[in-house]
Amino acid sequence: MINVLLNKSLISIVFLIVTTTCCYAEWNRYTITGKAQGTTYSIVYYGKDSIVTKKIIDEKLMQLDNSLSLYKSDSKINQFNNSEEGIILDKHLLAVIKKALLVNKDTDGLFDITVYPLIEAWGFGKTKTENIPDASGILSLLNCINSDFIELKGNYLSKKKPCIKIDLDGIAQGYSVDILADLLEQYNIHNYVVELGGELRVKGTKQPSGEKMKIGIESPSENEFDNQPFNEIVQLNKGAITTSGSYRKFHESNGRKITHLINPKTGYPQDNELISVTVYAEDAITADAYDNALMLMGLEKALNFVEKRKNIAAYFIYKNNTGTISTKASTAFLKLKND
């Protein structure tokens, strides 16, 4: 048994693969690993030969960086952020923007890609700072935060204010996972797990056994920032799982933990009982887009939100009124666990 541990601090996801070496020589298991988008990736697929190579994967990831990365000075996203009025988008940025605007409407603005000025102000942008913004600074920045200030017409994205800047950190990795999954499909590979930065997409089964893929969700302790054993297991043969959590990116200021999850309506970091949200959806871009918004909602509102939608399921880790860490799952997520 080979355990691939996806290091996500409190919530981590492990893909359990059982290899069988008997009479099924035609099936082989291939693994490709590397670094991309400031994190690591791991691809496992079953096939007759190693038709998809690391070079093919890395070339695709480079194309995505050229479009979506804030750390490439000439990327399409930086071209938009540095523009006065807007730019013509490439196919990758266009696809992500379309999805982001849909989720923005569905979450009543809690998922908002124009939050980047606040991300920078709180010390999570390209330029790091230890000074947290004051109330007047936040109020000023909120004048540049709202997806209503951007407009998509065809493949042209315009901005109504020069100060508008977008950040795709809450959706780009999910989209990248989907693109890599689509790449495997183009090579007639239909049994795989694609993981990038802990975001996963699964298709098919382990071969030749036909077992479903197993995804393990970490069971937390009283200290939500400790790594924990994996007690919750879901079995999948199709779909995507992503996680958002207050533990993933944070820094301290005057003894206060400041999370990277910034509420675009208030301008302040997430401050509620939720520690993490794991989301299941048919594709990774959907799961990735919703997990941050659910974190900002708080447990009760987030659970009600998920139960009203057929396209997502969710598993929550939170602190209850006594300070004890507890878990809760939506109806559809419970079914994943019990299947």
Automatic annotation (TrEMBL):
This is FAD:protein FMN transferase. Magnesium. Can also use manganese. Belongs to the ApbE family. Mg(2+) binds at G170, D288. It holds the Pfam family ApbE. GO terms for molecular function: metal ion binding; transferase activity. InterPro entries: ApbE, ApbE-like_sf.
